[in-house]
């Protein structure tokens, strides 16, 4: 009987020790879990740091390529009468202005190329059209009347002002044509060059299928679009590489 009691006593002691060991192990495990959670909560930027920045760098580089190739084309069209600094300024003014007036910049580059070859000092002796986008006296008067300004024709030698007035006039053609059944950028470009009244005189005939290939107004549009395609092909080439 005594031996049985001894066995029970030893068994109870061993069971108590086992339970104690299990409790200690649970406490250690819980402590480590809480500690790790706190560490992770204090350093949430780990994921950001591990994120690769290479694609962003590539996009920036491609943007720089478009910019540099466009500047080079501006200089080439001007027969290098534009310095690199001047070509850069023209580029930036056109990009900013087109964003302001929501106009595809390739058309404006095309117009600048056709109107003046990007030479800011250009002036037509007959029409008095001035600057890069060849602002005419009537177009400038229109701008002044609508916007409450008092610019003079000589102010249009200023590249930034010239592009501002030119883009406003281009956009304004859509306002003049607002009652037409359809309006395209081609319409606005021709109207910009020939005047809204002269443009409307031929518009219906063009839409009825008359081929105006020998018409000087249509010839102007063709030349602008040819230049525009040169500028758009730069962007398409670079984007395609991306």
Describe the structure.
- The protein is an all-alpha fold.
- The protein is built from ten helices and no strands.
- The protein has helices at residues 2-42, 46-50, 54-77, 84-101, 105-116, 137-147, 159-176, 185-194, 196-207, 216-241.
- The radius of gyration is 36 Å and the shape is elongated.
- The relative contact order is 0.09.
Write the layout of secondary structure elements.
Blueprint: H1 2-42, H2 46-50, H3 54-77, H4 84-101, H5 105-116, H6 137-147, H7 159-176, H8 185-194, H9 196-207, H10 216-241
Helix pairs in contact: 3-4, 3-10, 4-7, 5-10, 6-7, 7-8, 8-9, 8-10
| Estimated helix fraction | over 70%
- Spans of at least 5 consecutive residues whose pLDDT stays below 50 are 34-62, 210-214, 237-242
What's the end-to-end separation, in Å?
A: 91 Å
How many separate domains? 2
CATH second-level architecture of the largest domain: Orthogonal Bundle
Please summarize the sheet with the most strands. Answer: none
Binned strand content: under 5%
Overall structural class, as computed from helix and strand content, comes to mainly alpha
Oligomer: single chain
Q: What is the level 1 CATH name of the largest domain?
A: Mainly Alpha
**What order do the SSEs take from the amino end to the carboxyl end, as H and E?**
HHHHHHHHHH
Alpha carbon gyration radius: 36 Å
Q: Helix count?
A: 10
C-alpha geometry: elongated
Tell me the total number of β-strands: 0
CATH topology of the largest domain: Lysozyme
Return the average pLDDT rounded to an integer: 77
């Amino acid at each position: 009987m005594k031996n049985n009691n001894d066995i029970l006593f030893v068994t109870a002691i061993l069971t108590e020790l086992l339970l104690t060991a299990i409790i200690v192990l649970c406490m250690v495990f819980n402590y480590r879990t809480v500690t790790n959670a706190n560490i992770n909560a204090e350093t949430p930027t780990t994921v950001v740091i591990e994120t690769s920045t290479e694609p962003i760098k590539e996009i920036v580089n491609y943007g720089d390529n478009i910019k540099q190739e466009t500047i080079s084309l501006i200089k080439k069209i001007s027969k290098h009468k534009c310095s690199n600094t001047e070509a850069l300024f023209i580029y930036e003014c056109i990009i900013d202005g087109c964003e302001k007036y929501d106009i595809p910049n390739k058309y404006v580059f095309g117009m600048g190329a056709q109107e003046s070859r990007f030479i800011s000092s250009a002036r037509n002796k007959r029409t008095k059209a001035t600057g890069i986008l060849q602002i005419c006296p009537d177009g400038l008067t229109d701008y002044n009347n609508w916007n409450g300004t008092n610019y003079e024709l000589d102010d249009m030698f200023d590249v930034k002002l010239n592009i501002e007035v030119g883009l406003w006039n281009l956009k304004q053609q859509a306002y003049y044509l607002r009652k037409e059944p359809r309006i395209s950028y081609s319409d606005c470009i021709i109207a910009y060059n020939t005047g809204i009244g002269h443009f409307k005189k031929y518009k219906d005939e063009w839409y009825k299928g008359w081929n105006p290939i020998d018409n000087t107004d249509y010839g102007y549009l063709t030349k602008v679009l040819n230049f525009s395609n040169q500028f758009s092909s730069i962007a398409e080439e670079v984007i395609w590489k991306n």
